[in-house]
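Quick one: C-alpha cells for this chain, please?
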Amino acid sequence: MSQKIAVVTGSHKGLGLEIARQLAAQPGFVVIVTARKIESAELAKQTLTEEQLTVDAQQLDVTHADSVSQFTQWLEQNYGRVDVLVNNAGINPYYSAEESSILTAQPAVLLDTINTNAAGMLRITQALIPLMQRHGYGRIVNVSTEMAALELMGQDQYPIAPSYRASKVVMNALAVMMARELAGSNILFNSYSPGWMKTDMGGADAPFTVEEGAQTAVHLATLDEDAPTGKFFAEMRKFGGPISLPW
C-alpha cells in the first residue's frame, strides 16, 4: 500500500498542527489530526482541507485509557493500519510560581505533567504499535526538548521548569527502551527537540517559528529503513541536518 497513515497527537494548534500540515503535504500521506475535544480536531481538519491536504479528525485524550482504546478501534475500523505516530501532545506548567524552583515544585503537578507527557505517550504508542507490527513498518517520533538532556541540565540557560523537564526525561527513557525492543522490526523510534518556538507554550518572544520546529519531525517520520533508531536529535535548522543530542 503506497498510502501512509499518520497520527499526530495534540495537532489542533501550534506545533502539532504544523507537523500535521507538513506531513500531509508529503506524497501519499493521510494525516489524522487529534485533540481532546472533537470540535478542535474538526476545526483543524477544516483548516488543512481548505489547503487541499488529505486529513481526517478524531478525538483523542492520551491521559485516558478509554479514549486511547476508542481511538485505536476507530483507526483500525476506518484505515486498518498506521504507519507514522508523532507524539506531540504535552503540557508545560512552568508559568506557575512554584515551577521556578525545584524546592517549591508541587508533586501533584509533577505527576499530572508526567501523566500527559510521558505516560500519555506510552499509552498511545503501546496501542498503535501492533498496527505497525502487522505490516512490518512504522515511524514513531517523540517531541521532546533539549531541557531534558541530563548532561546539559546542570549548566543550560533554560528555565528550571522541574515538572516539564522531569516529564520529558521520563519520556526520553521510555523511547530508548521501546526502540531497543523494536530493533530489527522496521519500526524506528526517535525523539527530537523542536527548540523555542512562537506557540502558546513558547510565547511571542521565541526566536523560531512552528514551521521551522516541525521540519525535524517530518524528517524523522519519513526515514528510510536503514536510518537510526533510539536517538535524540536537535532541530535541524541549528546545524543544517539531524545532529544527535546527549541524553
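The mean pLDDT is 92.
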